[in-house]
Amino acid sequence: MSVSAEAPPVPDPDLPGPQPAAGSPSRPQSARPLVVTGGIAACAAAASGLAVLTTLTAIGWITAPHVGIGNGLGGVLRTAALLWLVAHHVGVSVHGAGHISMLPLGLVLLPGALLVMAGRWVVRAGSVTRLRHVGYAAVALALPYALLAAALALASRTAVAAPSLLQAIIASFLLALVAGGLGAARGLAPWSRLASLLPPRPRSIVMGMLGAAVILTAAGAVLAAGSLAVHLPEVKLASDALAPGTGGAVLLLLAQLAYAPNAIIWAVAYTLGPGFAFGAGTVVAPTGSALGAVPVFPMLAALPSGAHPGGPGWVPVAVLAMPYLAGIFAGLVTVRIAPTPVIEAAPLWGFAAGAAAGVLAGVAAAFAGGSLGNGRLASVGPSGFSVGLVAILEIGVTAALTAAAANWLILRRATKRARTHDRSAPPGRDFPGPVLATPGVVDETDNAGGHRIYVNPWAGHDDAPADDEPYL
Known about the structure:
Distance between the termini: 59 Å
Number of helices: 13
Helix content: 55-70%
Number of strands: 9
């Protein structure tokens, strides 16, 4: 796909709202194939991420040379490349230890943000003016980015650590495709206009899912922070045992921040009930914990280790109530955005929103765990299948019941308003006026605003016209 030398803005029929006219002035843009633009953006995003991680690696090598970064500049560069791949959730095989796939999810934010900016630049520099062409821009960015990741995976291999080449290609391609596609779409229109492209029914399910995800994430963050506060003495002892020094303390803090998303997802799995494991034969759940020896890492000192949950008795109850609160919120959001005149359909859409949130929780749990070698710590973190299944049942069923109740209340109040309007009509009028529609009720099969529930204004009147008699 190529672009012209001077590409004026073209109105996109896919986007609602006012758009620039085809004849409006615009600055000239150089003729450049989209493939070339995507390659330049991919190189810029990869180089920026490598520059940040190389700087941090060099600081660690200078301040703490005993951490095993390597000898000289070559060791620093190989370690930075390895960290760049880890930031894309690429597993590493370590000689004598096994496969390491328990990786910090916080590092994904760095390449993700860079790829979002790269996607926005591609649509601007490549004169992409149609929303349907965003996929081309995302692919043009993702393909060269995956090739760069493969080259780095081969170049960073040593006798001690070897990243997975297949994971490097797949993970980097998917991340660039998703993040770059979001950035490209955002470069064409604001999020509010992009969201308005969805019909009311799918939009209600998506927003319900996101609402439940926000509730679960907030609950997980509060629970993780509370556990750190309760076990603060143990956390301090673990930090002192490492004796990292000033520079090492900064790097240790950054490492813990990188693992903060993992800790939040683990806390979400804890609130859902299945909990998580930290090694073979271990479990951390609201009903109690059974832990063995854990590595010396400050965040791990906050893991509850008692056979019974400590603290006040209401804490486990409040923790286990969070998924149901998320389900209630998902059902309310789903119905508020797109009520349905079919009473029995509301629970279905509520369950769809809750189930989508459960699937999202399961996927996040699968990425938040992994292995720390081939020994006892081969299984660390929550089970994605268990977390997803329990979340679908808890959040989905609660959202279905809430959506049914909320939808019934909306229809009931709308009917009462219509009857009140009918009784308040001026006396002496033979015909109270046009048929009143129940406001806010949209059927997903109607592209022109939705079907409406019509209330017969003559119902209950003695002078009501017959069914075959015209109203006017």
